[in-house]
Amino acid sequence: MDPFRTTLILTSYVALIVSLPGNIFIIVKNVLDLWKNRRLLLSDWLMLGFSFFSFLQVCNEGFVLYLDLYHLPSNIHVFMYLNMCTLWFSALLSLHFCLKIVQINHWLYICLQRRFPELFPWIIVGFLLGFLILNFYSTIDPKAECSSNTTSSVVSIRCSWLKLIFLTSCFLFTFLCSLSALTILISLMKHVRRIQDNTEGSGSPSIKAHIRAVRTVTTLLAASVCTSTMVPILVWSDGSWPFLCVILYLICYTLTSYFFIKGTKKLNETLSQILGRCY
Questions:
Q1: What is the pLDDT of residue 49?
Q2: InterPro entries annotated for this entry (predicted)?
């Protein structure tokens, strides 16, 4: 193995290790709150789901890097499912921040603002079960021919309909993140322009909320773009590109966990208390 490839693998392991604590902290804190209060806010549910599947995906990436299993049929389906779930929660989080912060006087947008919390459980359960059934069907149906090419280190999915659904969903989820991020950014610019002559200034709670949302959604968007880019590269490319994509992907999700913690009062306070006791 050449030194450059070895360096990339070692860097991938470092990124894996660095990305784990943030996800674990968010998961543990929200699970404890759910156990204590028997309820969670919608934003907490979304962060919990995103962090949970991101954690599973990071573990899967570490498993793959260690055993080099990209050519095994079973692993490609796990990879696809975890990627889809992470992207789905990323898109829903971006949409939730947009609906929560941005005010648009349009009947469709207002209707979506009101109905989103009610539709959330059905949207999540429907997607998770739907794509799980598709993956399961593609693995057990011999006529589907969805297994990967086991004679090559490059993943080759022969099931055209599954590949089409996967890539189309990646594009749609990334587009939803992009649209939400752009909407929040435009709203922030308008809001800043509106209060320039007021005494509120940049310390306005609304401005701070916009800035926190922009930071979080931007990292979600970057992670979604990296994930969507990583998928075709892992499927059709070889060499060092997959490792570079994994590194960029892990960096983006590490930053996302950081902004989750800093932007959520209960997470930030809990982390400060833990660090205060340690030091």
A1: 92
A2: TAS2R
